[in-house]
Design a protein that fits this description.
Radius of gyration: 19 Å
Family: Belongs to the glutathione peroxidase family.
Keywords: Oxidoreductase, Peroxidase, Signal
CATH superfamily: Glutaredoxin
CATH topology: Glutaredoxin
GO biological process, one term: cellular response to oxidative stress
Number of strands: 6
Protein name: Glutathione peroxidase
CATH class: Alpha Beta
Strand order of the largest sheet: 4-3-5-6
Pfam families: GSHPx (PF00255)
Shape: globular
Number of helices: 6
C-alpha cells in the first residue's frame, strides 16, 4: 500500500511542476491603467508567454512618427503572437499631462491599435516596476522610444535606442527571435 501511495505522490508532483513553470516572470508582475480608459492592464495576463516589444513613448518627441512603424510591426507579426506595449512617459519632458491629448496622438494621428498605458515613470527610483526590471536586464531608457524585445519567457533579448526604427533589420531579427521563443 505504501508503494502505491508513493507512486501517486510522485505522479502528482510531476503535475505540479508545469504549473510552476507557467508563473508570471518578474518583468510582467503588476498592473497599469490603460490609456484613456477605466480598464487596467494586468501585464501578466496580457503578455505572459508571448513575445513582446515594450516602448516608452512621448507625444511631442522627434521620434513620435515611429508610432506608425510600430503599428506596422504589430500588424505584421500579431498573428504570430507578437504583442507591442506602449508606455507614455514625461521623464524626458515631451509628453502631455493631458491623457486625452496623448490618446489623440496615439490613436487618431497614428492609428495605434496595440495597448497603451497612461503616462508612467520609466526611469529612476519611481519607475514603473516593468521598467525597473527592463533596466536590470538591459539598461534604462535614455530617451523616448527606447525599444525592448522580450522573449516568451519574459527575458530581454535586446534593447534598442530611440534612433532605431521599427523596420531596422537588427530590430526585426530580434523580434523574429522573440517570436521563435514561444515554440
Amino acid at each position: 500500500m505504501w508503494r502505491f501511495t508513493l507512486l501517486v505522490v510522485a505522479l502528482l508532483s510531476t503535475w505540479v511542476i508545469p504549473a510552476q513553470a507557467d508563473e508570471c516572470p518578474a518583468l510582467l508582475q503588476g498592473e497599469v491603467q490603460k490609456l484613456r480608459s477605466e480598464e487596467r492592464i494586468d501585464l501578466c495576463a496580457q503578455f505572459a508567454g508571448k513575445p513582446l516589444v515594450v516602448v516608452n513613448t512621448a507625444s511631442f518627441c522627434g521620434f513620435t512618427p515611429q508610432f506608425k512603424g510600430l503599428e506596422v510591426l504589430y500588424q505584421r507579426y500579431k498573428a504570430q503572437g507578437l504583442q507591442v506595449f506602449g508606455v507614455p512617459s514625461d521623464d524626458f519632458r515631451q509628453e502631455s499631462d493631458n491623457s486625452e491629448e496623448t490618446a489623440k496622438v496615439c490613436y487618431v494621428n497614428y492609428g495605434v491599435t496595440f495597448p497603451m498605458s497612461e503616462t508612467q515613470r520609466v526611469t529612476g527610483s519611481e519607475a514603473l516596476p516593468l521598467f525597473k526590471e527592463l533596466a536590470a536586464q538591459s539598461q534604462a531608457p535614455r530617451w523616448n522610444f527606447s525599444k525592448y524585445v522580450i522573449d516568451a519567457k519574459g527575458k530581454v533579448i535586446a534593447s534598442f535606442p530611440s534612433s532605431t526604427t521599427p523596420d531596422d533589420p537588427a530590430f526585426l531579427a530580434a523580434v523574429e527571435q522573440a517570436i521563435a521563443s514561444q515554440r
